[in-house]
């Protein structure tokens, strides 16, 4: 089994994108995922599965839509992928690390042409 970090985009504590973490953990556990853990009301999940990352993204998106309601974008990453982002951060020395943020795209962005 492989450990994945599942990131849900647009989770809100109230309103149309509300995803209660206890309910999310239950839905994922009931569906056979192992060691399901969530982080506060963030929409971040850690779990173990035999599925590939690509299949897991769509599968979790469908489970959330079916059992909880919101149709959210889902990104799946490994710990090694996130560690690489942190290690390759160009803003390390001379920067307040608590003020440095990163963005992870589901797919690579299109090249932007500038004039």
From TrEMBL:
Matches recorded under Pfam families: DUF1697
InterPro entries in the cross-refs: DUF1697
Record-given protein name: DUF1697 domain-containing protein
Species: Rapidithrix thailandica
């Amino acid at each position: 089994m492989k450990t994945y970090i599942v990131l849900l985009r647009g989770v809100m504590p109230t309103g149309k994108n509300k995803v209660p973490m206890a309910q999310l953990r239950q839905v994922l556990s009931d569906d056979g995922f192992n060691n399901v853990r969530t982080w506060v009301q963030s929409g971040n999940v850690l779990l173990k599965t035999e599925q590939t990352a690509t299949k897991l993204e769509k599968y979790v998106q469908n489970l959330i839509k079916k059992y909880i309601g919101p149709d959210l974008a889902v990104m799946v990453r490994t710990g090694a992928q996130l560690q690489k982002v942190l290690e390759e951060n160009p803003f390390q020395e001379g920067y307040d690390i608590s003020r440095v943020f990163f963005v992870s795209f589901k797919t690579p962005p299109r090249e932007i042409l500038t004039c």
